[in-house]
Design brief:
The complex is a heterodimer of chains A (558) and B (255). Chain A has 558 residues and is of the alpha+beta class. Chain A has 19 helices and 12 strands. Chain A folds into 2 domains: 203 residues, no CATH class; 262 residues, Transferase(Phosphotransferase), domain 1. The longest helix of chain A has 34 residues. Chain B is mainly alpha-helical. Chain B has 11 helices and no strands. The longest helix of chain B has 27 residues. In chain B, helix 3 packs across helix 4 and helix 9 crosses helix 10. In chain B, 38% of the residues are buried. Classes of the chains: A alpha+beta (558), B mainly alpha (255).
Chain lengths: 558, 255
């Protein structure tokens, strides 16, 4: 073969084989990367975000009843036929007397509840009308402010709290934070303070019922639930933006007035009254023991490190209860399997009930958006039945494959096509009998169009890959295809690094080949250990990089 | 040691510290502090503990994969050895709780001695505890939740066994006072949820006014709490551990 001058390169026959080898190897490397990424994706797909995990129907439960209080199935052989968890919970509480609850005749009650007449002494500026009952943390009374001629709710916090001096300080701080919560869906705090040792909160009076009362009366229609939940979300979103977490969202704290307005009560009270000290909270009969089912898992395990996402979990429990009338305990069924509701709601509810906060909705406003979208979708005449199984592609709640990742993947091969075309171009003109070198017109056109795209492909694909990774991480499950995005992001960098590792090996081999002009083929095989070392190094480096990037991509976006 | 239910006043919340004197006689502390002279007493205490809390051991063994027949043999053999040897003398008092001690002993037994003991037939002279395996088997035969380990099953069954003991004591007390009907009528109030308890109906059933029913239920609940704490005290080394043990067991019952 002649050593003809070809373009920029001094290409002899051996060098052409060399280049072919290089490209073959790079292609193999690319395929290896693809396989690795696909394998990683396959491993992660135990918990796919693309399709919401619909719980398989739970195995036939043993013929046991459910605890009427917490709804959990009674274990076989339950002591005295009672729910062990509830019974032990009662055992946990050390306060034997709760003010105002029993008042056994003739016996001394430790902390007598202030009755309305007595309260008027402490609050001369109010007209105490009646006792509304026992709230989460204290007694609530209906009262009237004569000066302003309006009704208010007076909440007296449990008197024994007043003994703690640190409590006073905390109370002040928290009450000030609560006073900032001025929102149509939040029960307004008019005033707060301490009167003769009694800590009190003066709140807006809501003439209506609690969600709990509605739930006990009759099951709420799904339409009503879809109407109530967004309003709760608005309240939560507003409070969260103010940096206030409710921590005790439950049906007893959701009030509905006669005009159908939704108001959340007792914001931040849990923290106010000292849920920070878990021991203290556990001795309050109805605060933790009564409503552990609404608490997010992280709230039970590490109460101090709880953030606004715990409220989203509680909202999910309430939502589930509104739709199905039951609590989501253990292996629970999605709402659409229990009542006739839109299947898309399952996804929303399950997303709020994720055990890990990172996997939940990150903002209450997102829940509201999704719920409203579904509610709007239902009223559209196109929807045949409420139980339509066709997922609407335009629905914002439906996860879709990241388009950025797709474009990146499409762009990638252009580089190889361009390189191949370039090689072909040079090869065609390399033939010994060929006309003097000069590219044909079609080759020029091809080069001019493909060349820029092709040359830019490595950069383009890589950039698109990283962008796609970031988008997917921040999409809260709405985008999927992390595997392809990682592939895009890493394919060319890895190929380049592979080439860098391979280059010294090839140089070494080609230089030794040059020294023995007659024997071109042998060195390739003779120095097999060079190949082994090079391939080994490449494999290790690629693997480490892919793994590191995959792990950090999978970490939740804070 | 335990006052009659009708003699207490409602304002007497006996904190564990108030009855510190009782702790000298609790079972586990007796066992731990037994010297050479007290072996008979220590043995009796240990035997009582074993009778009350063998279910969780059985649950652990079954959860660890042993068949029913083997689990029965194993449990019997383990207890026979525990009671025969003075292995408890080696128990470290600082460790504190009978529950952990028992589980550790069982694991040690399973790891080291069960293989050898299985080969031999059980000796005729060994004292066997009267254990009802049927009830234990029903309790263990729950659909196992994912992530359930034998250790967790053990703790859960321990909580159930504890409730068995306490509720049994409570019932016996009422029976001795001739008020077992009261206990049976009111025991559902032990699940809590005060606002959901239909006091009026209960009163009608028992022939009491609503107010009287509330008082009776309250007394029952309070007595239950006292007995619960007393029984937990039986299994821990000191009064300061009672609350912690109670919270641990409550957490163990989480679904």
């Amino acid at each position: 073969m002649n050593n003809a001058m070809l373009g920029l390169f001094n290409l002899g026959g051996g060098e052409i084989i060399l280049i072919l080898f290089v490209f073959l190897f790079l292609a193999a490397g690319a395929i290896a990367v693809v396989l690795i990424v696909l394998w990683l994706v396959g491993r992660q797909s135990k918990s796919p975000r693309a399709v919401p995990p619909v719980q398989p129907p739970s195995p036939m439960p043993p013929p046991s009843r459910n605890c009427p209080r917490c709804g959990a199935p009674l274990p076989a052989g339950a002591p005295e036929g009672l729910c062990p968890r509830c019974v032990l919970g009662v055992g946990l509480a050390t306060h034997t007397e709760v003010p105002g609850d029993f008042g056994p005749q003739g016996t001394q009650v430790l902390q007598p509840p202030p009755d309305p007449a007595e309260l008027t002494r402490h609050f001369p500026q109010l007209e105490i009308l009646e006792c509304l009952g026992r709230g989460g943390m204290g007694m609530v009374y209906k009262a009237r402010q004569p000066k302003l001629n309006r009704l208010v709710a007076l909440k007296i916090l449990a008197p024994e709290k007043g003994a703690d001096p640190k409590f006073a300080e905390r109370f002040l701080r928290e009450a000030q934070a609560l006073a900032r919560l001025s929102h149509p869906n939040i029960v307004t705090v008019h005033d707060f303070g301490e009167a003769d040792g009694l800590y009190y909160l003066l709140m807006e009076y809501v003439d209506g019922v609690t969600l709990r009362q509605l739930l006990q009366g009759h099951k709420i229609a799904p339409e009503q639930a879809l109407d109530i939940v967004p309003k709760i979300c608005e309240a939560l979103q507003f409070a969260h933006e103010q940096g206030i977490v409710h921590r005790d969202i439950k049906p007893e704290n959701v009030l509905l007035d006669k005009q159908g307005r939704v108001k959340i009560a007792d914001f931040g009270i849990a923290k106010l009254v000292g849920a920070e000290a878990p021991r203290l909270a556990l001795t309050e009969e109805q605060s933790v023991i009564g409503t552990p089912h609404y608490m997010a898992p992280e709230q039970m395990e590490k109460p101090q490190s709880v953030d606004h996402r715990a409220d989203i979990y509680s909202l999910g429990v309430v939502f589930y209860e509104m739709l199905t009338g039951e609590l989501p305990l253990g292996k629970f069924q999605p709402p659409s399997r229990k009542v006739q509701v839109d299947v898309r709601l399952d996804e929303v509810v399950l997303h709020t009930l994720e055990k890990e906060p990172e996997r939940r909705y990150q903002h209450a406003s997102e829940v509201k958006t999704d719920v409203e979208a579904i509610a709007a979708g239902r009223s559209a005449p196109a929807a045949a039945t409420p139980q339509t199984r066709q997922v609407d592609g335009a629905s914002t709640a439906t996860p879709r494959f990241s388009r950025t990742a797709i474009w990146g993947a499409v762009w990638a091969p252009l580089f190889l096509i361009t390189a191949g075309a370039a090689l072909m171009t040079f090869q065609v003109t390399a033939g010994p009998d060929s006309p003097p070198p000069g590219p044909a017109w079609w080759q020029v056109v091809l080069s001019l169009t493909l060349l820029p795209l092709g040359v830019a492909a490595p950069f383009g694909t890589t950039i698109l890959g990283w962008v796609a990774i970031s988008q997917i991480r921040h999409s809260c499950g709405r985008l999927y295809g992390l595997g392809l995005a990682v592939f895009d992001a890493l394919a060319y960098p890895l190929l380049a690094s592979d080439a860098l590792i391979l280059a010294p090996a090839l140089l070494m081999l080609s230089s030794s080949a040059a020294q023995v002009p007659g024997q071109v083929v042998r060195p390739w095989i003779g120095y097999w250990w060079v190949w082994l070392a090079a391939f080994g190094l490449i494999a290790v480096v690629d693997w480490l990089i892919v793994r590191a990037v995959w792990r950090s991509a999978k970490k939740p976006a804070v | 040691m335990n006052p009659h239910p009708w003699q207490m006043t409602s304002s007497s919340t006996q904190s564990p510290r108030a009855s510190a004197g009782c702790f000298v006689t609790t079972h586990w502390s007796v066992v731990l502090t037994a010297g050479r002279n007290d072996t008979a007493r220590a043995r009796a205490a240990l035997e009582q503990l074993c009778r009350n809390y063998w279910h969780p051991l059985y649950a652990y063994v079954r959860g660890a994969g042993y068949s029913r027949e083997e689990a029965e043999d194993l449990t019997q053999e383990f207890f026979a050895r525990l009671l025969a040897q003075n292995s408890v003398a080696r128990a470290d008092p600082a460790r504190g709780r009978f529950r952990s001690f028992l589980l550790a002993s069982l694991k040690h037994f399973l790891a080291n001695e069960w293989e050898k003991a299985r080969a031999r037939k059980r000796g005729g002279g060994a004292q066997l505890l009267p254990l009802e395996f049927d009830t234990a088997e029903t309790r263990c035969a729950q659909p196992v939740a994912p992530g359930d380990t034998p250790d967790r099953a053990y703790d859960r069954q321990w909580a159930l066994a504890l409730l068995d003991v306490v509720l049994g004591q409570l019932r016996r007390e009422y029976r001795h006072a001739g008020r077992e009907d009261m206990y049976l009528g009111l025991k559902d109030t032990l699940s809590g949820g005060r606002s959901e308890i239909p006091y009026r109906e209960l009163g009608a059933r028992l022939g009491l006014s609503e107010g009287a029913v509330k008082v009776a239920a309250h007394r029952l609940r309070q007595r239950y709490r006292e007995l619960l704490r007393a029984e937990i005290a039986n299994t821990v080394a000191g009064p300061e551990e009672v609350e912690e043990e109670l919270q641990h067991l409550f957490a163990a019952l989480r679904p």
